[in-house]
Amino acid sequence: MACEAASRRRHHALAVALPGQGHVIPLMRFCKKMAQQEGFTITFVHITGAYFTSEQRRQPPLNLHQHHDGKQRDGEDEGGMTLDIRRVQIAMPDPSQLAGAGAMECFFAAVDSISPQIEQLLLQPYDPPITCLISDLFITGPTQRVADKFNLPRIAFYPSSQSLLLLANYIQEGALSLEEILKALEARERLKDTIFKEGLPGLPTIKVRDLIEHITENSKQRFLWVFRPDLVKDAPFTTFPEELLSKTQGRGFATHWVPQVKVLSHQSTGGFLTHCGWNSTLEAISHGVPMLCFPYFADQFLNAKFIIEEWKVGLGFEESKESGLIAKEEIQRVIQRLFETEEGEHLHSNAKAFRDACVQSYLPKGEAFNNIQSIVNSLT
């Protein structure tokens, strides 16, 4: 019986994420949950490349620390548990140097070439030895080939919602024509006063100055604004607008980066203006923060639909019929709805109910807890 238990505990998963913040972070969170299982070891593969910026190369993928035994492991988990999560790096080719029809095709061609390096990792004398692979669904090719070659089980990790995964079964025809998209891309001069690329069909647009005017003159709400200077190529604002800082009179703070989860978990945070990426959506819901939805890419529109219409933990913006933009009056109206109306109180109440449900889900016998247990049991 003791031997059987010891054997069951000695799992070691090699985890491979698609290189990108929206893929690395959720996979590491999943790996942390797996590593909480008794005796479960994770080796997390960080894909890098010489073409990344020097700043990107010197930053570790997540909060990893060097231990006295020389192995890089994750520090203490939220529950105070020391997790055996190790880190290794492999490089992939520069996508721009590969032949292909477009940037995305070249990127995935570069990712697809990493199989030999993953094989080399599996040949290393790990203790305990690798017993399974965990990899992003978007890099199924190179990781499944290796799993098959070494006869290892592979856990496919999908970093978006299940609804998006099922959506492809219901799409008959594309919503946009290539001609429309190319025409919009040619209108580059329209980019000049916007945060997001203006004119792409289906993408809402907010003007920087409209946001500034509302925050500085029309709203008394305190705010934390994370302003990425590289958000729009060739945009007029390369640093945070000084006029905003000078007019807010201590009501706000602007920065290029914040620890988003810590901010959302703070009791003073009452709303979250978000693009509705799946990571941000889950983080807001699990911390009971209602959202102001500003989707612009990929799964974000579907996520926003659930946030607003199904779960009722957020609000959306309406575009002007004349300009196709989101006017400053609309910004003011939506923020007031969240903080100054009975509707906003219901949104906050719903968000807190979801937060409580998330907490219960990870307790013993909760749904998320049981799901993790089922995955581990499937490996034995």
From TrEMBL:
Region described as Disordered: spans on this chain: 58-79
Keywords associated with the record: Glycosyltransferase, Transferase
GO molecular function, one term: quercetin 3-O-glucosyltransferase activity
Pfam name, any one: UDPGT
Protein origin, superkingdom: Eukaryota
Entries under PANTHER family matching the protein: GLUCOSYL/GLUCURONOSYL TRANSFERASES, UDP-GLYCOSYLTRANSFERASE 85A1-RELATED
Family per similarity comment: Belongs to the UDP-glycosyltransferase family.
Protein name: Glycosyltransferase
